[in-house]
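Let us begin with a simple case.
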Amino acid sequence: MNSNISAGTVLVTHVGSSNDVRQAALMIDSLRTFGGSMSDIPVLVFEDEDHPVHRGEFSWEGVTVHGLARPEGVVPYTLDSKVYACATAEELLQDNCESMIWIAPDCMIVNTPILFQLGDDCDGALRPVHITNIGSLAEKPADAFWEGVFQAAGVDDIIVEEPLLAWLS
């Protein structure tokens, strides 16, 4: 992996199939076309090492493709590649970026994604897309699942502000 990536904001995604590759290519093209002041941020694309994708699909400046291996002995589970991609990106970037944005390959960017630049006073933010499945309504207290996540992450303060849920630790 290229360990000298350094930037203010870095976008991270994972591709696990040829369909994901097509979708990620459209997402990156939409970032480069409509991303405004963030259109040229670095993009890290992670691919499963046991199912490599066509790296030629990602020929934009600032886009790098990295292999992603599951830890040995870990039983695969739904969405695990996304977790490993984020953890690997954090390890790769370490202290070399200010904000790491996770985005699914099937998303489109139609405006500058400025809300994802968090600044020094915020440690993380999320916007669950499946509010009725895994998210919580902003006007209600966090449920037991999210309370457990916040506790495990050492979150001291939660700020609910549409369209993001941000936290300080």
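The second case is a distinct protein. As before, the sequence precedes its structure tokens.
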Amino acid sequence: MKKGNVKALLPIGVFLVLYLGLGILFEYVMKIPMGFYNIPIVVAFLAALLVACLQNRSLKLDQKLEIMGRGVGDKNIFTMILIFLEAGIFVGVVGRESAESVAYFMLSVIPAQYAVVVLFVVSCFVSLAMGTSVGTITLLTPIAVAVSRASGFDMALCVATVIGGSMFGDNLSFISDTTIAACNGQGCQMKDKFKENFFIALPAALISIVIILIMSLKTEISGAVTNDYNLVQIIPYVLVLIGGILGVNVFLVLLLGIVSGSAIMLSTGSAEFTNLLSNMGSGASGMFETIVVTILVSAICALIREYGGFDAILSGIKKIFRGKKGGQVGMGVLVGVLDVATANNTVAIVMANPIAKEIAKEYGISPRKSASILDTFSCVFQAILPYGAQMLVAISAVSSLGAEISALDIIPKLFYPFLLCISSLVAIGLTKRRIK
């Protein structure tokens, strides 16, 4: 291992100061709604890249450009970008009306006493199928508010249940930004990461259901929620989900989803051909910022690695965390800290990927395990951040419906994220020693 150079980490510090500092200023001092998400993250990363280019005068600019080019041109980075685009097109094609259909269908056939459990299960399924926690929260929070008002369930419990369930799919979905970033960054198959992750997430989800059920049975019910639904549109989601679990190539799985979704949307009259093409474009363009961030982070990390920054981080982790179990905890802490700083779990994973890969190599951690840790811990931290997109979108949705709720009301009832953290730590504790 090369000698570490802490100064090489300055670009990351610059980014965090700009993004976190301005985020706190906008959100809590200037009281700008969604303040953290009014900051152009691409500009913050460009400033960090400029700082990285100005460092290490022993290398000429052309040499630095060559290093950045190698980092951006990595096979895993290019694959990640293509999957981001295809996943965006898929979501653009199938739309999001099916999420409401699934929710209202289950609410119509299951007794009102179990409405909050239904919200959790539907949130898990929808986020697993759509691959987005924010999208799931946007769609299902109004239904959660309707359930609370109609049945008498605590509003904070209903909203927290949707947030928790949405993180289940964000963590496990084959088309989630975080899954794509973690798997390609660590060089593992999505099906392998899914298997590793599933047996960590499942116990947390089941215990969450039990807790929600106990709380539900103690609540007096005064009514139920009913609405129209159309289940045909969930077929593409189910096909993508099954194909991913079976291990079919992710490009083919998403192509199947796009083709089947297009056929269903056209045949049912849900969209005209021109609108369908427009939706494809909108879905792909929705991924542009994530793609640009991926490119910039890859370039920055390539320079930081060359300057010895990663070696400095690895050396620090080795001093604090001992052994294979310690290495896994260190990896989780790393991505958690980055998520707290960026309030974006995909960006946190992209930033942590190259460092985590070095940690995995040093401690003998398999790619599927390291991808699982990065995705899981980033989702845990993201779910409970008072200034995270998930929390802010949920609060905003509740407010738009004439109700009031705060992050402090929601956080204590986020059972699934807290249980997911416990389940992850238990899984790390059960890790066997590496046999040389």
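The CA atoms of residues 196 and 369 lie 7 Å apart. The radius of gyration is 22 Å.
Keep these points in mind for the review questions at the end of the chapter.
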